[in-house]
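REQUEST ID: PR-0412
SUBMITTED BY: lab tech R.K.
PRIORITY: routine
TASK: structure prediction, single protein chain
INPUT:
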Amino acid sequence: MRFFITLSFKGSSYCGWQIQPDQPSVQEEVERALTIFLGEKCEVTGAGRTDAGVNAINYVAHFDSDNPLPFQDIARLIYKINAILTSDIVVHNIYQVDPMAHARFDAVNRTYNYFIHTRKDPFLDQYSYYFPYPVNIDKMNEAAMFLIGEKDFTSMAKLHSDAKTNICTVTDAFWAAGSPVGVSPLSPTAFTGVTSACYGQRIDNSDTFCFTISANRFLRNMVRAIVGSLLEVGRGKHEPEWITEILQQKDRCSAGSSVPAHPLFLTKIEYPDRRLDWVRNF
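STATUS: complete
OUTPUT:
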């Protein structure tokens, strides 16, 4: 039987989702917890990599099990697994899916949020990037529009990665007033789109901002390079059209510097409904 598991994690203590030699990973911790509780070797496949230090909300993974008994009481199962997991990882749900469903290959869209603040604030530093300069959000949103569509993001990707293609289709990219404070970063209902990232603030009166970007796939370091480039536009170093020039050059050196990882959240992963129909005959 195949099961999907949804979880959230704080990424500061991990090299990312994927297991890496001699480094702590979220995947390794989740596999350890499931193996202990189920009493069988459990391998977990995630929806994709996350960079070191990046957070995730409602991250999706799948695993297989031949033993149906523990899954007859999902609430107890989740409670027990969370008791085994470290404090910076929490499981929200486990449910049976189509045996061919795949957490990574079936995902059709992913959304990230990145938070910045332009006025020093000791309560924001854990999940937001302090950028001590005035920024023009209108210019940054104009620049973000040049990211929309199917494009080659070589200029925004980590060098020497093992990606087979750097083509990604971005469906949404915009800035809005928003702050990570006020919503628990590990809440399963947090950041479900711009309405939860914004708290009724006017952009022109705000000093905390949230960048939202959705695409069918993302390259390593891609979002952080995009945010760094958009911030250069916001400071007035470049005009919005510079983003188009960056993409055309297909050279990482042509883009802005990558911003830190800790304010970045993977917040949504979408799947076709046909793959996620619950199987109730445990």
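NOTES: Confidence is low (pLDDT under 50) at residues 183-200, 278-282.
REVIEWED BY: pending
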